[in-house]
Design brief:
This protein is an alpha+beta fold. The protein folds into 2 domains: 301 residues, FAD/NAD(P)-binding domain; 51 residues, no CATH class. It has 10 helices and 18 strands. The protein has a 7-stranded mixed β-sheet with strand order 5-4-13-14-15-12-16, with helices on both faces. A 3-stranded antiparallel β-sheet has the order 2-6-3. Strands 8-9-10 form a 3-stranded antiparallel β-sheet, with no helix packed on it. Helix 6 runs antiparallel to helix 7. The longest helix is centred in the C-terminal third of the chain and has 28 residues.
Length: 365
């Protein structure tokens, strides 16, 4: 979309025909909503989104408290949202090659060979093909590090009676170094768990235990997918090939947010491409890295510093008591999700409050 605004010729290629299902909780943060509005001109309306302002938190099944009237968060189904975004892009003149599988990429000649004998040439190739990125695997040998990647399982269960007031649920510890979620929507409740892949060889059993609490007796189809949270690639491209979104590992390791980062990095990749093509492609990947992924990568690195305070087993008793007793911490978490607070603010606040919190915790043990 941004590339068309910059008067570039654009083709979108995907093996799937849209609309298609995609594993994703579908939580749209305030930051993501702003990106949808700024880049796609898409407002948050009831057509695609359910807005919720109620949250509840748990740790290993124990209630950590609820929040009412938090900053607005929006819930959507990726099947519907992605189809809408594709339609908006095609209306601007993007050539639609969805339903076409990539057979081979010839980087030396800037050619993409498709399964039906079609061949596309490019000045810049943007890999927005997810965690199992064919583009990333071709230029770097593998798309991700299996020891650092996450994995998630998810179902769609029946919708609650009143999804707009039913709280969004986050369960820390439902998976090792991860969490569970239950996102109420108008037609279903998206329930899933995700955590670091190498720490959860029994993820299916953990999902069944989680569903026994929230959706006993379910017979819903289980979807599974890798998640690149906290595994941002050091080199989001090479030459005139760029990686964006999940393909570049741009997923928040605490909140799991990826949609907003994908939209923002995609727009920055388009802007870097437009400038580079005007100037004869000088240092395209380097320019994109500095302009787009560095700020997002910095936020992800800061989140990785905080992640042990939430997910490390030896610190969970401290996290449980502190989070349960602090409305401020819960609201900071929600402000982080809504885009009203950045990780820099969270780190500074944590550094100030952590010594006192540890002291209070140690006195009561």
């Amino acid at each position: 979309m941004q590339a068309r605004k910059l008067d570039l010729s654009v083709a979108v290629v995907d093996k799937a025909r849209f609309p298609r299902d995609k594993l994703c909780g579908g939580l749209v943060t305030g930051r993501c909503a702003k990106a949808l509005r700024d880049i796609f001109g898409l407002e948050v309306t009831h057509e695609l989104f359910d807005t919720n302002r109620n949250f509840e938190f748990f740790l290993n099944g124990r209630n950590l408290g609820q929040l009412r009237d938090v900053p607005e968060l929006h819930l959507t189904m990726r099947r519907d949202l992605d189809f809408k975004l594709l339609d908006l892009a095609c209306r601007t003149g993007v050539a639609d090659y969805t339903g076409h599988r990539v057979q081979k990429i010839d980087y030396a000649r800037n050619l993409v060979f498709l399964s039906d004998d079609k061949v596309l040439s490019y000045g810049c190739l943007i890999g927005a093909d997810g965690v199992n990125s064919q583009v990333a695997a071709t230029i770097f040998g593998q798309s991700f590090d299996p020891k650092r990647i996450g994995f998630a399982l998810e179902i769609e269960s029946p919708a609650p009676p009143d999804p707009l007031t039913h709280p969004v649920r986050i369960d820390f510890g439902a998976a090792d170094w991860g969490y569970g979620w239950a996102f109420p929507k108008r037609d279903s409740t998206t329930i899933g768990i995700g955590g670091l892949h190498h720490r959860n060889p029994d993820m299916k059993q953990k999902l069944q235990a989680y569903l026994a609490q929230l959706a006993p007796g379910h017979d819903c189809k289980v979807k599974g997918h890798f998640l690149p949270f906290g595994n941002a690639t050091r080199r989001p491209g090479r030459g005139n090939v760029l990686l964006v979104g999940d393909a570049a590992g741009l997923v928040d390791p605490i909140t799991g947010e990826g949609i907003g980062h994908a939209i923002q990095s995609g727009a920055k990749a388009a802007e870097a491409t437009a400038r580079a093509l005007r100037e004869g492609q000088p240092q395209l990947a380097s320019r994109y890295h500095k302009a787009a992924t560095r700020p997002i990568r910095q936020a992800i690195a800061q989140a990785r510093l905080l992640r042990p305070l939430i997910f490390a087993a030896r610190l969970q008793p401290f996290f449980e008591r502190t989070f349960r007793e602090s409305t401020r911490l819960k609201r900071d978490y929600m402000r982080l999700l809504s885009g009203e607070m950045e990780y820099t603010d969270v780190l500074l606040g944590t550094a100030k409050r952590l010594p006192t919190a540890f002291w209070r915790y140690s006195r009561t043990r």
